[in-house]
Design goal:
Blueprint (H helix, E strand, L loop, with lengths): L36 E4 L2 E5 L15 E5 L2 E4 L5 H11 L4 H5 L1 E5 L11 E3 L2 E8 L13 H4 L10 H10 L7 H9 L27 E2 L3 E2 L29 E7 L7 H8 L5 E4 L19 E3 L8 E2 L3 E3 L1
Parallel strand pairs: 10-13
Antiparallel strand pairs: 1-4, 2-3, 4-14, 5-7, 6-7, 8-9, 10-11, 11-12
Length: about 325
């Protein structure tokens, strides 16, 4: 099956809703570095790929670039870390301000009432009261039960606010890919070129089975895994692909002469770039759990599989 041209894993949720006002990020006077921060060497690195899988996503070409040294958290920001930020600042996320967010249909709580789906990708359901604390809806207490899992249901604006609070920022695409490659050069995945399987080789948290109806959870998880799980790459970073999509600092842009691509991008003005894929990605439908893979979403959108990690200048 050919991968779809739509960005199936990251639905834009807020296009028809008025955006609530959010406070401007307040930057820390001194960096609050986590214990697991990693110093990443600068120099020549690579961006993109010559082995594109989804051409209309702007994955190619492979080109050499130069990156300055930086520091980045070994994992995505966890529920426990985000809770500290909220407790210290009183920050209210965009999902909380909107009063709803989207939940993948297999993860709906048993007591959830009738929900509305996204046209064309109806497995995404609009759930009142879903937010970073109650990921799947009211009373699910997901964040409290899983403090070491990635925080999700956070928008790009929420991620930027947290990053400012710890004195950091979101990574650029070059920084993210440089960290994900781990010094290995032109590889498809953080561990090399061997693709994950539905059984056998299971190096990351993605979908196994038939999407979107049946996930066997052969890798041990049917939703998020702990932020520090599976083997890290050569630099020491965990879950650079799979688990959750990661917000970056950059706009979602594609250089293309194709009319269909230009028309799609016209409806994505202001979108931000995400990298890495998630636990909902499967080769048969969304083979975006690769280093060069790309997706985009509106900066106020939130889902159960979008998180982020933070970068600090060296």
């Amino acid at each position: 099956m050919n991968p779809p041209k739509q960005s199936c894993c990251t639905p834009a949720l807020r296009q028809d809703s008025p955006a609530p006002a959010i406070p401007a990020p307040v930057r820390a006077s001194e960096p609050r570095l986590p214990d697991n921060v990693i110093a990443v060497p600068g120099g020549r690195t690579l961006l993109g790929t010559q082995q594109e899988v989804i051409p209309d996503d702007g994955e190619s070409p492979l080109r050499p670039v130069t990156v300055a040294p930086f520091r980045m958290s070994a994992t995505t920001v966890t529920n426990a870390e985000f809770a500290q930020f909220v407790d210290a600042t009183g920050y209210v996320t965009e999902a909380e301000r909107f009063g709803w967010s989207f939940v993948f249909w297999l993860n709906l709580a048993d007591k959830t009432t009738a929900t509305q789906g996204v046209a064309g990708i109806e497995w995404w359901r609009k759930v009142d009261g879903a937010n970073w604390r109650d990921i799947s809806g009211p009373g699910t207490q997901s964040a409290e039960c899983h403090p070491d899992h990635p925080v999700v249901q956070v928008s790009w604006n929420d991620a930027r606010a947290y990053a400012a609070w710890v004195g950091g920022r979101l990574p650029t695409e070059v920084e993210w890919e440089h960290a994900a490659r781990g010094g290995r050069g032109d590889v498809r995945y953080p561990w090399g070129d061997t693709p994950p399987e539905d059984t056998g080789f299971l190096p990351c948290n993605i979908w196994q089975g038939r999407f979107p109806d049946a996930n066997t959870g052969a890798d041990g998880y049917v939703t998020t895994a702990p932020a520090q799980s599976f083997a890290p790459n050569e630099f020491g970073f965990y879950n650079m692909v799979g688990n959750v999509w990661e917000w970056t600092a950059e706009p979602y842009r594609i250089k293309s002469l194709k009319r269909a691509v230009r028309q799609r991008l016209a409806g994505m003005k202001g979108y931000k770039l995400l990298k890495g894929g998630s636990f909902l990605c499967h080769r048969s439908y969304c083979h975006r759990y690769r280093i060069a893979a790309r997706s985009g979403n509106s900066p106020d959108s939130t889902t159960t599989h979008q998180g982020f990690r933070v970068v600090w200048d060296a």
